[in-house]
Known about the structure:
Shape: globular
Strand order of the largest sheet: 1-2
Distance between the termini: 47 Å
Helix content: 55-70%
Number of strands: 4
Number of helices: 21
Radius of gyration: 23 Å
Structural class: mainly alpha
Strand content: under 5%
Order of helices and strands: HHHHHHHHEEEEHHHHHHHHHHHHH
Number of domains: 1
Amino acid sequence: MLDKLAKLHKFAPAITFLxxxxxALMAFxxxxxxxxxxxxxxxxxxxxxxxxxxxxxVDGISTIAFFLFPLFLFTLxxxxxxxxxxxxxxxxxxxxxxxxxxxGLLPIAFSGYxxxxxxxxxxxxxxxxxxSALAALTLVxxxxxxxxxxxxxxVLYKGYHMYYRGEPSSVPIEEMAYTLQGLKFVEVKMSxxxxxxxLLLTSSIALLFIPFKNKKMFFLFLGYSLLGVIGLILFPxxxxxxxxxxxxxxxxxxxxxxxxxxxxxxxxxxxxxLLGLLAxxxxxxxxxxxxxxxxxxxxxxxxxxxxxIFNTNRYAQKYSPLITNIFFDNFLGSWGSHSAFQDVLYQxxxxxxxxxVPTSGVIGALAFIVMLFVGFKGFKSYLSKEKEDSLSYKxxxxxxxxxxxxxxxxxxxxxxxxxNNIVRPIYMSPLFMIMxxxxxxxxxxxxxxxPKKEEQKxxxxxxQEA
Length: 466
């Protein structure tokens, strides 16, 4: 049977082409159905396995095991958690969506490894497909907002509200926009609209690495970047402006690390110091809301500055309900009792750092962080040792994933409908699925470029003999 299936490998390029079509649907958010994305991901993985079964190796799978295991743990806790059950009862989700949390995310992540077995898969083509779909969606959204509101409406109509069935919108006009959701246009929060233009802007890093003589690719990525800028300028917002600056900062740091090698180590040290300080502040914030640390909480409350930072400002009040007594009440995602479903029917904050606690518990939230760490660690070998992919496309993958993680950790709205009840946690986002694919692709390609221990020994022996 294996010999017969091995003959299918010659048709693997057709499956790779199908994969590109699936990614185009995801990036364009066609259908706006997580069940559709999950089913396509599962089907794609099965086809890639079937058509590349002879090329699959145990050591290849082991390279992404450290990424897949925390992802599996996270998805399992999400699918079985009380948060999901509560929203299932009020029909925010359905049972098929919960089933496809693990059955959709794990296959798309595993597909990142499987496509590396087929030499016809080109990362350049993949990025063109993703950014072209995002460009098409952004262009459609720009047109519909120009028709309904006009250019610069966020400034011209500042403080105004829309009315629907006699009720004013939950946010003023300058904080909302129209976007294509499936096959219809709906009013969403501005933080949902700016995602696509900002993702287009992440392609700007390629302009610093693509030789100008390669005019076709240079102007293509220039077009993506300009369309992203236009989408942000025509409907200006503080959210779009801040994250556009963050993207430009990411571009500058990547370019600096590439051009001046002496800056790489200091930049890495600074990055880890900042992450360490952030982790320390987060730990202190969490500890402040645990019943077992009443002494620490009293110390914070009695200090006016610390009390303002950890208790009384709007961000602390927004995030604190999600982390109160989490080590006792929500260690495995059991927020409240099974009979008190109203305890979990609250508004999501837009930060996976806090939203993952009620959805998958402390264990799931930590597994999610570990998964991201492993994913970004894979870029080390991919950028320095992998030789097949062009550097200009490697840095685009790094910029895309870096921005998406930063945005998701701060302001990726999960309940973004203005007049419609739309609940889409990060793990039900097609963009999140694309990011998972990027991570496993990067990990696999980077690991494939590393010499085996036996090969390394032979090389060292040859060098010594020489």
